[in-house]
Amino acid sequence: MQTVEGRPIARNPLLLAELYFSGLAKEKWTSQKEALAALGHLTPSVSREELSRAIGVSKLPPPVLSLFQAAGIWSSTARELVSLARKYGPHALEERARLIDARGLTWHQIVKLLDGQEPVAPKRRSKASSPLVLAAMYENGVADGRWDSITEAAELLGWSKSHLKWAVAVSRLPAQVLQLFDGKILVNAIGDVLLHVHEVIGTAEMIRRADELLQKPKRRTVEKIIAHLVGTKEESQVSLKVRKSRSQRVSRFVFEFSVEASDADEIITAGQDFAPVVQLVLSMLRVRNAQGSK
What is the mean pLDDT of residues 25-40? Predict the structure, then answer.
């Protein structure tokens, strides 16, 4: 998979547009149709609509594009921006962009402001901002020479060092995994789960499972994406409940599995697979308990 800064070129509108115009200048192609044929090797593939949107977004006024320096422009972002450009025109978007302070905002919130709407008021930045937004702000600061380390950035911005370090770790998960959440707000809780899944199953297996979903594109809920990464089949009727019990002054977590009889043989013969799943759930519970005690 061809990636730049951890994101597939095919899903990075600005880089895709840059690649297209570079090919035009070098006479590798003379039209979007020819470019699509030449770029057929990209994984995931690029559709005609995606290339057209990428080109359209790249032509937006610099003040508009600069709003997304930290939040990033994804395929879904490009779709919204092209729609706004048609609705209001580039000049009107530029005027609105000059009045927007995009610091700490997600791309969804920035788009709302460009559309003349009030976005949902964010909570405290350290808790509400997407880890990918925080990580991008940190990486941009390093590139601009504003700080040289996570410790320095946290002190200058008043952020929690541990939270910023965690956000950077989330942003460095395999590009295939992050691509599954293109168009979705990757909230803190999901970042926690992804890091724990990565810790349990490893990089290679996590990429393999993400690729399985990418090869079968369709709308999926965040829950179904996580379930697949953990290893649960979509058609499986397995149910897992976790409850906390206390006996003789000792607290215990009890795992209750419910499964259809037709799936029982498969589960019993692969019983060793339960260990990493239970480990994952316990890790998530420890994180939540630690956060609740702060």
Answer: 92
